[in-house]
């Protein structure tokens, strides 16, 4: 109800939906299969061998998948509209230790480098004759010689970055004086308060029976 | 005397063999010392020990004495050493923080980590960027730079913390000829400004062009000046 309009306003609706669907797809397939074929119910839609697909199972699966998509969409919207440096600066300004925020930022920031390394390793292995195209089986077989160098390289890179950060006094305890603060406009503050008020209203409505019980 | 290793021996965690065995080394202010030797000779280990990352961060066992600005590093936390001795690694990309929105922010990270007031951090950052001659990169994204430019940013990031000694572990190993030239020029200018430089490097040509005093290391020992 809130994520979709938010994504439209931010101009990232398509990317949010694609990200959310891609992230939830494997889980959705598993939940769908397990729920539809194993959940007992009075209405049998069809039978597959010893398993009955029930309407109740499909209903349960649809609700679970919808919740997963909503959660993934909210996270995707947050990720796509919040620069990591802004998140770090704001958390730190509010007294949260920079370490977890920094670790998160470093992980997000390292993704392009990791992707570039994966491309380099793939090209190097191809040059030595590895077949990374063709049938699914061939592609799967090609994963093994690619995974080792990529994972080891990623570990080495994390170690190197960690040492470099240590050498730049990252481990120093105490408060830092940041050079930059993310912009916080009046409309952003208003939106935050409205969201909090909405959350409180939903919780109160659910607890008093005015709204349906929260799952 | 900016940096001195006195009879330093070091063993990495879980290894039985000594990586460094009785190393003596001294680097004075404004001096460039080149550490040359084959792979696995102990060049990188000298660098890690010299800046306090070994054993403080990576563990292991150290005997002997490492003096930075005449002060023993024994018992000092790494962040306490950060303003005295800096280290630059071979791979420029992996030593940048990956979250700096601009080169200026990336270079400022060290001073900010030291807890300096904003004015001081900004002044140090500007000075480091000017010293490396990378003013035109200040507003650019660090991850969009060439390897040579990234390495200059990494060096500037260390310089902004005002160390008297800079340790560089194969600083041009992953750079193209243009990047090598940029970094070489920057190192010469740093030494002229009084920074002590210890450079572990395969490339003897680079060391010669910097006018470095070259010492050879092999099997963790520093035998004789080469």
Give a quick rundown of the structure.
Chain A is mainly alpha-helical and 215 residues long. Chain A is 73% helix and 4% strand. The model of chain A has no long low-confidence stretch (mean pLDDT 82).
Write the layout of secondary structure elements.
The complex is a heterodimer of chains A (215) and B (226).
Chain A: H1 3-10, H2 13-38, E1 44-48, E2 51-54, H3 55-81, H4 84-93, H5 98-127, H6 136-167, H7 186-208
Helix pairs in contact in A: 1-3, 2-3, 4-5, 5-6
Chain B: E1 3-11, E2 20-27, E3 32-36, H1 43-50, H2 53-56, E4 61-68, E5 71-72, H3 78-81, E6 85-88, H4 103-113, H5 118-132, H6 147-159, E7 165-169, H7 177-192, E8 196-200, H8 204-209, E9 213-216
Parallel strand pairs in B: 3-8, 3-9, 6-7, 7-8
Antiparallel strand pairs in B: 1-2, 1-4, 4-5
Explain what this protein looks like in three dimensions.
The complex is a heterodimer of chains A (215) and B (226). By secondary structure, chain A is mainly alpha-helical. In chain A, 73% of the residues lie in helices and 4% in strands. In chain A, helix 1 (3-10) runs parallel beside helix 3. Chain B is of the alpha/beta class. Chain B has a 5-stranded parallel β-sheet, with helices on both faces. In chain B, helix 4 packs across helix 5 (118-132). Chain B is globular. The mean pLDDT of chain B is 90. Chain A binds chain B through residues 83-85, 88, 102, 105-106, 108-110, 112-113, 156-157, 160-161, 163-172, 174-180, and chain B through 48, 51, 53, 57-58, 77-79, 82-83, 86-87, 89, 91, 93-101, 105, 108-110, 112-118, 121-122, 143, 154, 157-158, 161.
